[in-house]
Design a protein that fits this description.
Oligomer: single chain
Shape: globular
CATH class of the largest domain: Mainly Beta
Number of domains: 2
CATH superfamily of the largest domain: q2cbj1_9rhob like domain
Order of helices and strands: HEHEEHHEEEEEEEEEEEHH
Number of helices: 6
Structural class: alpha+beta
CATH topology of the largest domain: Jelly Rolls
Length: about 290
């Protein structure tokens, strides 16, 4: 690997990352620093500014001012090479070794991922990501976020925030400084977001990649919907608030049916029984 350095050949370091990932709160994650070999000048020089015609804009109250590009053929060569490295077998094996997620697959279409850029005023409301990737019949397992901001300072906002589900205050906040990489497991409990970017900050630049498996988890991990944890109802009319309540009710009902469907699937039910049988035999032998 020429551009990204995870020290994957250092067994002791990988073991420490594995322990850190497994014991992290509010859900499994690990934060690494200085993982990029190119200098910040090279990366920032290659990263498109907001005038680039390759950006797509996401303009809604949950992801304000966010730009993204998932078309890898349009990306500058240096950034494209970084993404190719992060999807290579060496990185997939590294991710499996620290997370315990086996047989990981990258997404060649970068659905929801790729290059991300948000100017001052941008924000990402806390949410959980989709789990079912219906276009490829895959199941989302991991998020990898690589930050590319050499001048980020305390007070600029834009931190990645990790929450316990149902709580308003983050348990972990990570500044998006240059070369910082965050890897976390993603399921229906991994609530995360980005705090508001202040007016004095630079544009917030990052690469986002997601990793999948071809088989479903034995336990319920989510469905095909991104669930936003906050709604600004103060500006809504009574009719709009009623519609929001109906929408919430329908979404919750859908999740209940999806969870029941998962539990009733004999493949996962039998796998759970086999797993329990193995535990029982271990106890009996002791």
């Amino acid at each position: 690997m020429d551009l990204v350095d995870f020290h994957h050949d250092d067994a002791d370091y990988v073991d420490r990352l594995r322990v850190s990932y497994q014991n992290a709160t509010p859900f499994p994650h690990v934060v690494m620093h200085d993982v990029l070999r190119p200098t910040s000048d090279e990366i920032v020089g290659a990263f498109p500014d907001l005038r680039w015609d390759g950006w797509n804009a996401r303009q809604h109250s949950y992801a304000r001012e966010k730009r993204f590009c998932r078309d890898i053929e349009r990306m500058p060569d240096l950034l494209r090479r970084v993404i190719y490295e992060l999807e290579a077998p060496t990185v997939l094996r590294f991710l499996s070794s620290i997370t315990g997620k086996e047989k990981l697959l990258p997404d060649p279409y970068l659905e929801g991922g790729g290059l991300h850029c948000s100017p001052p005023g941008g924000q990402l409301v806390p949410h959980t990501d989709f789990h079912l990737y219906e276009a490829l019949d895959l199941y989302r397992q991991l998020n990898l976020l690589l930050y590319l901001n050499p001048m980020w300072k305390p007070g600029d906002g834009g931190e990645l925030q990790l929450f316990r589900k149902g709580e308003q205050d983050p348990v972990v906040s990570v500044a998006p400084t240059f070369g910082t990489c965050v890897i976390f497991g993603t399921d229906h409990l991994s609530v995360h977001g980005v705090s508001p970017i202040t007016e004095n900050a630079e544009d917030r630049r990052s690469i986002a990649l997601y990793y999948y498996t071809s088989t479903e988890n034995e336990t319920f991990s989510g469905d095909n919907i991104t669930y936003w944890q906050g709604h600004d109802v103060t500006s809504l009319s009574k009719a709009e608030r009623a519609e929001l309540l109906i929408s919430r009710g329908l979404v919750r009902t859908a999740r209940v049916f999806h969870r029941l469907g998962h539990r009733s699937n004999p493949i996962y039910r039998n796998a759970a029984k086999r797993r329990q049988g193995k535990r029982t035999r271990v106890i009996d032998q002791s």
